Amino acid sequence: MRLQNERRAKEIEREEKQKQQQQDADEERLRMKAQIEQDKALAMRREEVRLIRQQEAQERDWREKELRKAQERAKREAEVRSIRNEQIKQRREAASKSVERERQHWEEAHKIWLQENRAEEEQAVKKSVVRRHNDMTGCIPSV
Questions:
Q1: Per-residue pLDDT of the chain (143 residues; tens, 9 = 90+)
Q2: pTM for the whole thing?
Q3: What is the rounded distance in angstroms from the CA atom of residue 130 to the CA atom of residue 141?
Q4: What CA–CA distance (Å, rounded) separates 51 from 49?
Q5: Going by C-beta distance under 8 Å and a sequence separation of 6 or more, which residues neighbour residue 130?
Q6: Coil, strand, or helix at residue 142?
Q7: Spatial distance between the Cα atoms of 81 and 76, rounded to a whole number of angstroms
């Protein structure tokens, strides 16, 4: 009986050992599974962060591109405004010169008209003086 009890005790000890080993193996599997899940979660988080950074970089590039476009557009608009202002200035100068030439032309025409008018008046006065003189002296004017 003692032998049976010893065998039974060894068998119980072996069963308990197997149970403990099975429990340790189960715990190890659970730890491994938890570690795998944690690694997957970390990998997913890394991928999310990578995608967010990639999107931010793309947005930054897009904003820089849009800024360059806006700067180029502003530069072109400034050049157009400058050219237009220069054209307006040139047109005003040309109009001013034209007005000045027109004024000089009419002043000259007026001057000539005045000279002609004075000459005619002087001739009329001379004729009048000659007629009076002829009338007074009785001379017939020679034609």
A1: 777 888 888 889 899 999 999 999 999 999 999 999 999 999 999 999 999 999 999 999 999 999 999 999 999 999 999 999 999 999 999 999 999 999 999 999 999 999 999 988 888 888 888 777 776 776 665 65
A2: 0.47
A3: 8
A4: 5
A5: 141
A6: coil
A7: 9
